[in-house]
Design brief:
alpha/beta, about 30% helix
């Protein structure tokens, strides 16, 4: 949303039982669609949309270990190019100097930093994965939209999406898309108080 106030979105891939990571904190279940052309096109279109990417430390480390590699460039050239070129923010109290190109570190006052960024004009911000960051920013009512990609697998254990919210947060379903590989993407917007 260039020229206006920024919007903050979260994109999360979850299992049928609402988990974004399995019991070993792995997210490989979310990448079973890699060979599916329709899903690959959807992901490439998302990456081409631009904006600013935001991550927590764990997700950042996973992304930074994959996207800058020759293997990523060969497997998914369009997505790799965009992921490496886009501006990125990593929220971490332990990371001292991010190595991935175009990355800014936020080491304290995440809520205040995001609140200030949203009050400025500029490109929209999208959180990828990063469950604890999503929960913190949703609790502070800073997330405007949530995009949930449901993968057709039940994990039985692991980290659940939006776990630990101290109060209910109402969202409105805006649209859905069903993929031939069995995945479903749901787009929600935060419901404004009446």
């Amino acid at each position: 949303m260039e020229g206006g106030l920024r919007q903050l979105s979260a994109f999360m891939q979850v299992s049928l039982d609402g988990r974004f990571a399995d019991a070993a904190a792995e997210i490989s279940f979310a990448h079973q669609q890699a060979a599916d052309a329709e899903w690959h096109q959807f992901m490439a279109e998302n990456a081409a949309a631009g904006g600013v990417l935001m991550f927590g430390r764990i997700t950042y480390d996973l992304m930074a270990s994959w996207w800058p590699t020759p293997a990523a460039a060969k497997a998914m050239p369009e997505i790799a190019r965009q992921m490496n070129a886009l501006p990125k923010i990593v929220a971490s109290r332990t990371l001292s100097s991010p190595k991935w190109s175009n990355t800014t570190l936020v080491s304290r006052d995440l809520i205040g930093t995001v609140r200030r960024m949203k009050a400025e004009s500029g490109p929209d911000i999208t959180i990828l994965g990063s469950g604890s960051i999503v929960t913190q920013l949703a609790t502070a009512q800073l997330i405007d939209r949530i995009e949930v990609a449901v993968t057709p697998i039940a994990l039985g254990a692991g980290k659940t999406f939006l776990a630990g919210l101290p109060l209910p947060l109402p969202f409105t379903l805006k649209r859905t898309r069903v993929f031939d590989n069995g995945s479903v993407v749901l787009w929600y917007a935060r419901k404004e108080a009446a």
